[in-house]
Structures are given as structure tokens and as C-alpha cells.
Amino acid sequence: MEVSAAAAIGAGIACLGMGGAGIGLGNIFGSYLAGALRNPSAADGQFGRLIFGFAVTEALGIFSLLIAFLLVFK
């Protein structure tokens, strides 16, 4: 199988989204932890938003991987 240069470059650029997802997850959990330490009584109320943010951020990373695979294995 031969991959064109444009597809390889596009797949590499699409994979940058996975790095952004990792950074986003760190920000989400770090912010939750900082908020929970400041106000422990409100931490339970924010846990649902934490899980939603985790799911959306992780989905963006998986979508970028899917785009990279689609470009390479078309």
C-alpha cells in the first residue's frame, strides 16, 4: 500500500488533536481538583460536569485519530 505525501501530512496534522485532548484532560481534572480543594461541599455537584467534559474531550481525540486513519487507509 502506498500513501501519498498529502495524505501522510494530513494524517499527521489530524493527530495533533490527540495531543490537544491530552492537554485538555489535564486542564479539566486540574481545575476540578483545585475547585474541590477550595470548596469541598460543591465538588459533588460538579462531578457530572467533570465526566461530561472528560467524555467530550476524549471523543475529540478519538475523532482526530479516526480522521488520520481515514486519510491513510482510504
TrEMBL record:
Pfam families noted in UniProt: ATP-synt_C
Keyword set, alphabetical order: ATP synthesis, Cell membrane, CF(0), Hydrogen ion transport, Hydrolase, Ion transport, Lipid-binding, Membrane, Transmembrane, Transmembrane helix, Transport
InterPro entries per UniProt: ATP_synth_F0_csu (IPR000454), ATP_synth_F0_csu_sf (IPR038662), ATPase_proteolipid_c-like_dom (IPR002379), F/V-ATP_Csub_sf (IPR035921)
Transmembrane segments: 50-73
Gene Ontology molecular function, alphabetical: hydrolase activity; lipid binding; proton-transporting ATP synthase activity, rotational mechanism
Highest taxon of the lineage: Bacteria
Locations listed in the record: Cell membrane; Membrane
GO annotation, cellular component aspect: plasma membrane; proton-transporting ATP synthase complex; proton-transporting two-sector ATPase complex, proton-transporting domain
Similarity field: Belongs to the ATPase C chain family.
PANTHER family registered for this protein in UniProt: ATP SYNTHASE LIPID-BINDING PROTEIN, MITOCHONDRIAL (PTHR10031), ATPASE PROTEIN 9 (PTHR10031:SF0)
Protein name, as recorded: ATP synthase subunit c
Organism: Mesorhizobium metallidurans STM 2683
The gene coding this protein: atpE
